[in-house]
Amino acid sequence: VRVNGAGLAAANPFVTSIASAPVNAGGSQVVGDALAGTVAGVPTSFTIQARDAFNNDLTTGGSPFQAEFVNLPGALSLSTIASPVDNQDGTYSAYFNLDRVGVYNIWVSMCETTCPPDAFVRIGDGITQVEFQLLPGANDFSKFLAFGPGISEPVTVSEPATFFVQPRDGFSNNRIDNGNLISELRAGISLVTRTGSAVRYNS
């Protein structure tokens, strides 16, 4: 600061501090590996960085963010709402654990009802929603589904009978055989022998 060409002697130059502006949802951003996809029943999370309209990171909490996961092409009845944890440093952690396999849309916003466009948080470069794939978990033999004529119809002694096994995870999501299922079935599932109306289980 100078007066008539001369600098003020006391406290010159002056030091000032510029604080961030109020939170702006459209300027905030979501980051985290969970956005690329996860596995049914496995807890995971992503982080919201609150920013103002000038792209400055906020360093305090108190913003009412919420996240919504919608199982496509499902309706609202298939959606899950998560309230992110306020870390009190300008970041918010959204923890979730989904168990229905499929493609999900994630929205993060600062409103509880219909949102204007600027109320959504950016997920990636300029986008406000992202699709991610929820994959089935590990094989759970107790959830496997066996079906076919070898089970539902009478069979004849010494004649071949066929049935099918649909692999599933612990949440009854269908799985695709990874090539090792035959050996796992032989080791872990009992054979069933039917004699008349009786059923005998042989390990």
Describe this structure in words.
With 203 residues, the protein is mostly beta strands. Helices cover 6% and strands 32% of the residues. The protein has 2 helices and 15 strands. The chain has helices at 149-152, 181-188; strands at 2-3, 6-7, 29-31, 38-39, 44-49, 66-71, 79-82, 85-86, 91-96, 102-109, 129-135, 145-147, 164-166, 191-195, 198-202. The strands form 5 sheets. A 5-stranded mixed β-sheet has the order 4-11-10-6-7, with no helix packed on it. Strands 3-5-9-8 form a 4-stranded antiparallel β-sheet, with no helix packed on it. The chain has a two-stranded antiparallel ribbon with strand order 1-2. It is rod-shaped and about 115 Å long.
List the helices and strands and how they pair.
Layout: E1 2-3, E2 6-7, E3 29-31, E4 38-39, E5 44-49, E6 66-71, E7 79-82, E8 85-86, E9 91-96, E10 102-109, E11 129-135, E12 145-147, H1 149-152, E13 164-166, H2 181-188, E14 191-195, E15 198-202
Parallel strand pairs: 4-11
Antiparallel strand pairs: 1-2, 3-5, 5-9, 6-7, 6-10, 8-9, 10-11, 12-13, 14-15
